[in-house]
Amino acid sequence: MKSREQEYREMFMAEALEGYDAMSQHMSVLEKRPQDEAALGELFRLLHNLKASARAMGHNEIGEVAHRMETIFGQIRAKERPFAGSAVPVLFTGIDVLGSMIRAVGANEPLAENQALLENLDRVVAGEEPVLADDSEVGSEEDATRKLELSDLVYIPIKKLDHLLNLVGELIIDRDRVLTLARELGDTTLQSVTAHLSRLADDLQYSVMDARLVGVGTLFNKFPRVVRDVATAEQKQVELTISGQDIQIDRNILQIITDSLLHLVRNAIGHGIETPAERVKAGKPEVGQLSLSAQTDRDNVLIRISDDGRGIDVERVRRKAVERGVLSRDAASRLSEAEVYSLLFDAGFSTAEQVTEISGRGVGLDVVKLAIDSLGGQVRVESKLGEGTTFFLVLPTSIAVKGALLFELEGHPYALPLMHTDSVVSLSPEKMHIVGGTLLAKVLDENIPVVRLTELLADDDAALPPASRANLTGLQDIIITNYNGRKLGLIVDRFLRQQDIVIKPVSQPLDMIELFGGVTLLGSGQVCLVLDVPALTRLFLARRP
Q1: What pTM does this model have?
Q2: Has residue 279 been placed in a domain?
């Protein structure tokens, strides 16, 4: 895995070399048309960007040259001086020197200070005549060759990577079909060839997925300014700590969670962290602490947004759920803390009134949850009243290929994403009991509601029939799902296997059914529907007796 420094250097090199090529082109345009406003504007912009990125990377020598040249082009744009006379060869020399220094960064070579060039640029800024060498316009053949060197880094539009990954997905599907066929035929030669094909397909898949990975720091590092601005607007003092910037994740996933992270950070400052006066009164330091971190969690990425603010008042949330008719008083009293926190993500709970009643934690969190659900991820909350709140985002590293549990129901294969699969168990009916018309199974000292998946998938909006153990014979294969702090046991006909699948969108008319999150093709050629655990959980809650 690349280090953060190496990744940033490559990003700087790609952008800087592209900028250098563009500056050389615009300089040639200006030499022919000194009044060309578009070329002048682009040169000024490119030099400004190069100055900023070079200084940010610690390449101050590049930053100094770019700064002085930016100043000169600013004068030219403002009509304070023309693009003419002895200033022109100095500016061309400056472009050449910038190119040499950028290439030196790529080769890990030390950067020369180029004092003569800097002095000449200062003279031009001051309106004085620069000191030119007899030859700054005639370059050597070596110089010309160097200017034609191509970067070994290329920009690839994300759409091209998306298309390439889709093609790899099709290849994976066909590979599985060929592997199945080879096993059925029992042809050892064919099995040997398909085994090699399988390794090549895996290598290609992971290579393409690796090309789409970026460090979460590319997003995290934008938050110090956001935190500063929001804290200033709220008249609060907040210190942000960032860690785990090197953790790699699919660029598309990072794009999708951007708004969610922004909302959670704003919420933490606006409604979680107290004012300096409130913090002092509560015995806390005036400066609130906010942390944004990332780490790997098995095959997933775990992002934490944590504050040391007010925390969530669980009892207030219970009362508000009862007042709004979301739950009965008795049902609300039986909720665990995790179940109470999950209420905050319900769309019906997101009203402006919650800003004061529950520290603003209900505002817009349904949108956050929907974004994470779309990725096949999870959101969890931990909080302690008066001490702070932490949001956990559990995200896959890639959204194209997902681990899934395959099972059979009424002769048809189905898949459940592993992200929402807590465990699988086989229990006899005697190990289950009925409470309030709902079947419960005790798994690791936890009572979990259980339902036959065939009943849940039945095309009927009516309430589920009261649970009965009479139609359950022998060991029951149960998949324990976990979504938003709620566990649900799904009784299926039999487990098949666990494997990576390529999920494709469902076509009409199945795309109108919320329960299906996509479709995949198995090695046998069978079409396999991928069930959506969040939708199944919501359906069970709506239809339970």
Answers
A1: 0.64
A2: yes
